[in-house]
């Protein structure tokens, strides 16, 4: 009875401590979001980072269910191996910088379970090969993660994050980001060659016009596959193509293309083409399905796709007017 009472007292103390940290952080994030100047927002953010470092080092802090506004994302893997916390700071010039932590399970020097904390540093502007690079906490492609997907194949667990970054006045981006956790050190690594038919890609980056609306979700939707078969027609065997509809869980997203012809690679001109793509997890890899169809109701589309209107480049318009 004495031991049980002591345990209850310790639990109540831990809960009170974590509750105070949460209150402090909520007050700081309100200033990070709404303070009128860059200096004030970054000062509040620096205090929030330091408060998080202290809070995440508290014993059993990995069990705390953080409650923040939508401004701060907290995602915990279903198997409770790690928690990732991310948020943005918006600058006066419209640029975004992301911050975050990974709290993950590892081992101590004796091989016993130990929890580790890694601060994430947004180095987006310095990463050249964004889709091909292996990244760590000190060289992170900053994102506010909105969904954490856990899959498995042959006893191995895979984690994939879906994230967003407001980037700049001209563009924003969404990302499909595989993440691995070192079982000994708990250290996260961002990017993994999980995309079938494209071995060099370790993540999918969708960058597009600031005003565009782009879907990126993990949900059950319909994909269409086509099969070449031989059928009998007018007394002889001929080749024919048969379509198969499959409803399955997938990462579904809008295909992007430049709205203005000739502007390939200038992402401020990229908008949805009207076509949807998807990745389905098959045998330990994300397999691309080019004929995905979203927003289904009983296998019927309830979303009308309208292809974008192609525009002439500005220089061609000027020349034609002359």
How would you describe what is shown here?
The model is unreliable at 6-11 and 297-322 (pLDDT under 50). Strands 5, 6, 7, 8 and 9 form a 5-stranded antiparallel beta sheet that branches. A 5-stranded antiparallel beta sheet has the order 13-12-11-10-14, with no helix packed on it. The longest helix has 33 residues, at 2-34. It contains 3 helices and 16 strands. The protein has helices at residues 2-34, 38-56, 314-321, and strands at residues 73-76, 82-90, 96-107, 113-121, 144-153, 156-165, 171-181, 188-190, 204-209, 216-233, 236-258, 270-282, 285-289, 292-293, 296-297, 300-301. The chain folds into 2 domains: 1-71; 72-321, no CATH class. It is globular, with a radius of gyration of 24 Å. The chain starts with a helix and ends with a helix. With 322 residues, the chain is of the alpha+beta class.
Query: What is the approximate shape?
Result: globular
Beta-strand content estimate: 35-45%
- Rg, please? 24 Å
Q: Could you say which structural class the secondary elements and strand pairing correspond to? A: alpha+beta
Specify the biggest β-sheet: 5 strands, antiparallel
Tally of helical segments: 3
Order of helices and strands: HHEEEEEEEEEEEEEEEEH
Distance between the termini: 93 Å
Count of the domains: 2
What do the pLDDT scores average to?
A: 86
How many strand units? 16
Approximate helicity band: 10-25%
Q: Unreliable runs, pLDDT <50, ≥5 residues?
A: 6-11, 297-322
């Amino acid at each position: 009875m004495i031991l049980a009472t002591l345990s209850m007292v310790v639990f109540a103390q831990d809960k009170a401590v974590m509750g105070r940290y949460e209150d402090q952080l909520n007050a700081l994030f309100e200033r990070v979001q709404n303070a009128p100047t860059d200096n004030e927002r970054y000062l509040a953010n620096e205090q929030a980072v330091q408060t998080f470092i202290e809070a995440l080092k508290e014993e059993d802090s990995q069990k705390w269910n953080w409650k923040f506004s939508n401004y701060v994302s907290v995602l915990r893997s279903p198997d409770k191996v790690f928690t990732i916390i991310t948020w943005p700071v918006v600058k006066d010039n419209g640029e975004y910088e992301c911050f975050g932590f990974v709290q993950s399970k590892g081992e101590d020097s004796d091989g016993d379970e130990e929890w580790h904390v890694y601060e994430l540093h947004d180095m987006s502007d310095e990463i050249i090969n964004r889709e091909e690079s292996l990244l760590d906490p000190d060289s992170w492609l900053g994102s506010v993660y909105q969904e954490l997907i856990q899959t498995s194949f042959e006893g191995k667990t895979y984690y994939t994050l879906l994230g967003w970054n407001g980037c700049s006045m001209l563009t924003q981006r969404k990302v499909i980001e595989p993440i691995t956790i070192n079982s000994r050190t708990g250290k996260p690594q961002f990017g993994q060659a999980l995309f079938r038919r494209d071995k060099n890609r370790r993540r999918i980056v969708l960058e597009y016009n600031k005003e565009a609306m782009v879907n990126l979700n993990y949900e059950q939707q319909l994909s269409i596959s086509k099969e070449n078969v031989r059928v009998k027609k007018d007394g002889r065997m001929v080749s024919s193509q048969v379509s198969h509809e499959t409803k399955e869980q997938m990462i579904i997203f809008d295909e992007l293309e430049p709205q203005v012809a000739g502007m390939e690679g200038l992402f401020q001109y990229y908008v949805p083409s009207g076509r949807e793509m998807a990745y389905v997890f098959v045998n330990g890899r994300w397999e691309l399905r080019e004929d995905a169809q979203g927003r289904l109701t009983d296998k019927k589309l309830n979303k009308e796709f309208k292809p974008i209107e192609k525009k002439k480049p500005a220089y061609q318009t000027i020349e034609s007017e002359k």
